[in-house]
Amino acid sequence: MEKLKNKVAIITGAAQGMGAMHARKFVEEGAKVAITDINLEAAAKLADELGKNAIALKLDVSKADNWSEVIEKTEEKFGLVTVLVNNAGVGIFKPLEELTEEDFRLTFEIDELGVFLGMKAALPSMKEAKVGSIVNISSVDGLVSAPTAIAYSASKHAVTGMTKGAAAELGQFNIRVNSVHPGVIESPMAEQGDVAEYIKQLEKDIPLRRRAKVEEVSNLVIYLASEDSSYSTGSQFVVDGGMISDL
Fold first, then answer.
1. CATH of the domain at 17
2. Does the UniProt entry include the keyword Cytoplasm (predicted)?
3. Which member of 152, 198, 223, 231 is catalytic?
4. Is 152 a catalytic residue?
5. Residue 15 located in a structural domain
């Protein structure tokens, strides 16, 4: 199918979970992919599995110098970067009274600062290529919010706002910027203990009565990275089974 033929993509947090599915799908669609993650061992294992069109690079998204290294190494291996998927994220869910400054700062550094640094780092490469698509993974909590989600929601709302601002600024360079807002996703973490019970309760209120499969999010990310979405920028793409449709 090769919807992403000739695309060079950097995907953050791509060693496992949703990010790993993005990487698999991107390679299937013809892209060359830098699989970046703080866990280099897991990233390297996935890159080896995916073959010559994937490389693994260690990345702490909160460090500007690390971002510069990733851009340089990706360009050396594959050429100019034309797609960036800011997928790396952390979720800390605690009542306000229990939420610590450390929790808040960690969430900010990964979920918000990491997106800013990624867009800034990829911009020169995309400008030189004269084309680019930035896909920022936000959340339904970047459009609404929920109890215990103060730190997470604050950062994801910031991602939504940054996406709009970047889209308005970068359109003149043929660089599109959109955000993706997943709801409840099937994942190993969602099957554990109290979380599993909470998710089951949430499912009852989702119009489609189920969680999203990871690939359903990846398919949307591929659409936004591809030329199929060539006139879409500055928009929020929700993939939540109707979860927030009445809000």
1. 3.40.50.720
2. no
3. 152
4. yes
5. yes
